[in-house]
Amino acid sequence: MSTSSPKPEEKGFFEKVKETIEGIWDDTKDKAEELKDKTADTIDHLKEKVTTEKKTAARKSTTGKKSVAGKAGTVTAKAKTAAADVKAKAAGQAEKIKAKAEDENLKAKKAVADVKTKAASKAKSITAKGKAESSAVKRLAHAKTSRTTTTTKKKATAAK
To answer: Could you please report the per-residue DSSP string of 108-158?
Structure first.
């Protein structure tokens, strides 16, 4: 006969909170990495686009080289500003995600602390109630035994 229970062991509140926090943290890290990868891809795409535009500009005739150089410069400047904008947006999003994760983490820690304090106060009140009931029962038992002994003594003295 086996001593193990067929039911799975249930997780406690703190393990569930811990797993929830770990899940949130992992998701946040994954999102930050995805944003970083998307930003890098966008920058690479813009660089490729600028390079192809530079190549087409270089193939034009020599009479139009000055205008092509000017266009390439503006395209490069636009690409640089677009890349800077994308980087700034990505950094802003990453900061928002980090702040949100920290906020959720603080909320979870606060909830854990609240549960601990409630559990401690509940344990104290239960202990106090148990002590009070125990002393009441002891007083009652003492009163009954003292009544019994006094009646026994009276009977004993009456019998002599």
So the answer is: HHHHHHHHHHHHHHHHHHHHHHHHHHHHHHHHHHHHHHHHHHHHHHHHHHH
Question: Containing domain of residue 98, as a range?
Answer: 13-132
Give the span between the Cα atoms of 52 and 56, in whole angstroms.
6
Note the pLDDT tens digit of each residue in 26-49: 999 999 999 999 999 999 999 988
Give the CA angle between residues 81, 86, 90 to the nearest 5°: 145
Q: Tell me, yes or no, if the pTM score tops 0.85.
A: no
109 within a domain of the structure (yes/no): yes
pLDDT confidence of 63, banded at 50, 70, 90?
A: low
Instruction: Work out the mean pLDDT of the chain and round it to a whole number.
Output: 83
- Cα(61)–Cα(49) distance, integer angstroms: 21
Q: Is the C-alpha dihedral spanning 51, 54, 60, 61 positive or negative?
A: negative
- Its sign, for the CA torsion 67, 68, 70, 75, is positive
**Within a domain: 143:** no
Give the DSSP H or E segment for 85: helix 65-159
